Predict the 3D structure of the following.
Amino acid sequence: LAKKYCCSAVVSVEALEEILTQTSWKIPLWNSDFGLLRLLDHPMPQPTLPRKCLTQGIQYTLQSGNSIQNSGHKRMYTLLQMQSEDSSSKPYRILVQSPARSTMTHQHVNLEYFPERGLEELTPQEQSLWILDSLLAPHFPIELLRVHVKENNTEWNIEVCETVSVSHALASSNEMLRRTWNRLLIVLNAVVDKRLPIHGDYLLVKESTDTMSLHCADENEPVINLENHFQTADVVKTSLADLLECARPWKWTSS
C-alpha cells in the first residue's frame, strides 16, 4: 500500500500522539524495502504521571463499555501529504496506521477533580490531538468527556460531554499549537530525509531537552536493554514536581 501511493514512511498513530503530547520518548525506527521506506513504530512504554495513568485507565474502561474497541488486531490506514514550514522543501507522503474503530467518534477523557470550581483548561499538547483526529478521520465528531474523579480516585462519573473541533483548539492556543505541530514536522522531516543513512534497527530518542538522538543496534550490542527498560516502564511517577505537572488551571468564566 505504501509503495502504491509512493509514501516515504509508515507511521503508527501512537507514535504521532507520543511526539505531540510528551516531552520525552523513545520510538523504534526501522528500514524497509532496501532503504526506500522508513517505519516509525509504536513508542516504547515509559514511566507515566498519575494523571495520564488514570486517564488511560478510565478511557480504556469507557471504550470497552461503549464498544469502541479494536476489531481484533486490524488496523486502518490513512494517507497524509505533509509539508514543512520551509516552503522550499518538497511535500512528502506518509501512511498512518491506527486501530480499526467500530464507532464513528473520536473520544478523549479529561479528568476534573474540582468541578464545583469550574472546568479545567486543556494543554495545547492535549488539544493538538483534536487536529490529528480531524486529519485522520475528518468526518468523525470529536468528543471531550470531562470525568469527575472522586475521593481516593476510586469513583468517577462523566460530568460533561463536549463536542470540540480544530477551531476550538486554535481559538485558545494558536501559537503553542503551531510550535507543537512544528516539532512533529521536524521529527517526520528527519525520518523521511534520504540523506540520513538508516540501515538496520534504530531507536529515535528525545529526552526532556529539545534535542533528538538516533541510536543504532549492531550484532554485538542491542540498541536498548529491554529487560531493564520494562522493569521501570510501568512506574507511576509521584515526586512533588511530577504531581505539580498534573495540575491544571480552571477555565476563566464571566462570573
Notes: DSSP finds six helices and ten strands in the chain. The mean pLDDT is 81. The CA atoms of residues 23 and 210 lie 8 Å apart.
